[in-house]
Amino acid sequence: MHPREIRPGIQAIATVHWERRLFDSLIPLPDGTSYNAYLVRGDQATALIDAADPALQGEFMGHLRDVDRLDYVVSQHSEQDHSGAIPLVLQRFPEAKLVCSTKARDLLATHLGVPEARIVPVEDGQTIPLGGKTLQFVYTPWVHWPETMCTYVPEDRCLFSCDFFGSHLATTDLYVMDRARVYEAAKRYYAEIMMPFRGVITRNLEKVSALGFDLIAPSHGPVYDKPVFIVDAYKEWVSPTMKNEVVLPYVSMHGSTEAMARRLVDALARRGVTVHAFDLTATDIGKLAMSLVDAATLIVGTPTVHVGPHPAVFYAAHLANLLRPKLKYAGIFGSYGWSSKAIEQITGLIPRLDVKVLGTVLQKGVPTAETFAQLDALAEAVATVHRQDDLVTG
Ligand code: FEO
């Protein structure tokens, strides 16, 4: 998009990737994404904050066609969707210095081949005056790499946050117009890449909130001109509070596990527990990750393949283990033809989840009345601990 003013002397340059559907060959992007850069012009110097993905670097460079001088290029995060176009920018503006956190120096040199002589590392809290505007660098590690930082312009009370508070949305909206849509996209993004670092993100939230800002300008998705909305959302997501919710991913091969899943969903719902069920053969893994942000319980259902769980269940369990959601309780159910070690193997896949297993139900062949009674008992155990923990719905 053509540069658009968000404050006098500050322009947003969104390079919108409408058709992108997968990030890192892993994360679904149902709504595409944008790579946002920002131009900050002072009386004496001009800075560019972040750039764009290499896939659209030609388009991005076109957005800079009217810029005649850059003194600084700020790389807030070395991942290529923001930094990939930086070598071209440095080529076009040979006078520009590349500013980054001390940990990013090595990453930018090794990932992009930027000559070290062009790089100016800055410490946490360091400032660069531009003349009437100041760049103040705020280290915010693990949102979501170790080197990530934000940039604050105190004269405009504007925080540039890169991935932090971002949302994968391809949109022409400069500011948040559809709050529900942005909330969902931002929550999905938080779940996919930041959830494992809840503790440090809590500290980062406190750190940036102390600065005081009227505008949050992330490097994905629209700008927040009413930033309390997204700050409050993050506070809720990182808080220890869990909800009266069960995430129930499953796979079925011949219908037995599906019948068990349906019984369990119904038994939980009848007891007032909200269930997010996912057939893993047709699941957007981002939605599964998002549902794990709030849930107290994970219950996994699997058929048996060569004595172990279905490979899609391996993947989902491994993913949950990596994302380290709040989860307090777990359950496992499934079916098998002649023999199964699925329960032991699934349990072994989730060592990083600090969960109490409330029950397991493993059925040989087609589920019977006794199987359904065991599933009802599992649902009752879940509902009971959720009640004891005063978990709320919604
Ligand atoms: Fe948007 Fe971590 O890159």
Contiguous low-pLDDT stretches (5 residues minimum) are: none
CATH architecture of the largest domain: 4-Layer Sandwich
Helix/strand structural class: alpha/beta
The first-to-last residue Cα distance is 37 Å
Structural description of this entry:
The protein is an alpha/beta fold and 394 residues long. It has two domains: 4-238, Ribonuclease Z/Hydroxyacylglutathione hydrolase-like (Metallo-beta-lactamase, Chain A), CATH 3.60.15; 246-385, Flavodoxin domain (Rossmann fold), CATH 3.40.50.360. The chain has twelve helices and 21 strands. A seven-stranded mixed beta sheet has the order 1-2-5-6-7-8-9. Strands 10-11-12-13-14 form a five-stranded mixed beta sheet. Strands 16-15-17-20-21 form a five-stranded parallel beta sheet, with helices on both faces. Helix 11 links the parallel strand 20 (329-336) and strand 21. The longest helix has 20 residues, at 369-388. The chain is elongated, with a radius of gyration of 24 Å. The protein starts with a strand and ends in a 6-residue tail after the last helix. 49% of the residues are buried. The mean pLDDT is 97. The structure holds MU-OXO-diiron. Residues 77, 79, 81-82, 144, 163, 220 line the site of MU-OXO-diiron (FEO).
